[in-house]
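Shapes recur. Our protein:

. . .
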Amino acid sequence: MKKNALYSIIVAIIINVISSVIYALIEKINFIEAFLQIWEYLFELIANILNFEIKIWQLIVPIILLCVTLYIIALKSSKSNTKISKEYMEYISGKYKDIHYKWTLDSYNNVVSINRFNFRPVCGCGGELTFKRQFGNMHFSSDKLFCVNCEKLIDGDYNHEIHNDALLFFSNNLGKKIEKHNRTILDES
């Protein structure tokens, strides 16, 4: 496809050059003299552009205005990002079905979301949890959450379905907080 387009352009240019030569021969125009005159006009145009006189203040003023404008835009965007990050940095833990969770928040392209890889269950003491199939003399048919810090077994079943439900629950809460924050920003302005 690209080759066909390239060939079409080349053929159009060649036909244009050939027709110009034929027209010059029919009208008895000195082709070399016309060609040299065209080049002379081009060189004059280039020389006029390069010799254009401009005062230094005419360059400095637009550059300063551009810098000030960009600085103001940068300040406004950094202030809005700071508000979002400060408000949502506090929402990094919660409780769902008697299981405590912790996570980190990601912000990309002004979209705040819970990092799925750092979303994890934790003990009430803040310690990380591990899975156990047995604890002391007790054996379980499914994995139970166990805190190694306080050696406490978390009551209740825990599986990937509960984990995904908890992630969805906290993501929905985060979305509600973002909507509430956006409404307050709109009300202020």
Remarks:
- The CA atoms of residues 16 and 93 lie 73 Å apart.
